[in-house]
Amino acid sequence: MNQWLIMAFLVAVLVLLAFYLSMTAGRLDRLHRRIDLAESGLDAQLLRRSGIALELASNGLLDPATSMVLSEAAHSARISSDRSIPERDIAESELSDALSAALDPEECAYILSEQGGPETLAELSATVQRVQLSRRFLNDAVRACTQLRKQRAVRWFHLAGRTPWPAFREINDQVTLPDI
Predict the structure, then answer these.
(1) What does the pLDDT look like over 47-64, one tens digit per residue?
(2) Is the pTM of this model over 0.85?
(3) CB contact at 8 A, 158 and 79
């Protein structure tokens, strides 16, 4: 009888351990999917932002030198999608810097007074906010996944498999625009 009690206890412990590992692996999988979706969303918003920047540079509302600088930064950010994440982040940060430099208060006042200017700045402002939110959402998911992957059970039982560690996106996405 004593032997059966010990066996039942060991089976119960193994079942609980298997249940815990299964739940943890499922949570880890969901976090990795959430990261993939967040990366796709961020990439879409970054492409949209570079497209709007190219439109702003080409519609004649900016002086030629500013248009050229903004166009080059937007083009560099757009073609950086084939590069590594740090290189992409640098290109996107340079676009943010170019947008901030090009859209000083005087320039924004002029753009707002021109035909099509308010719509372009409103669309750019909305996209800049979406980029910031997308990046925060991605970094929150990466933070949660990293914390889970650092747990002993996840490491000991290789619950993450061969999935690479997720990377934070460090982009300077602060672009100062006037309230529209």
Answers:
(1) 999 999 999 999 888 889
(2) yes
(3) no
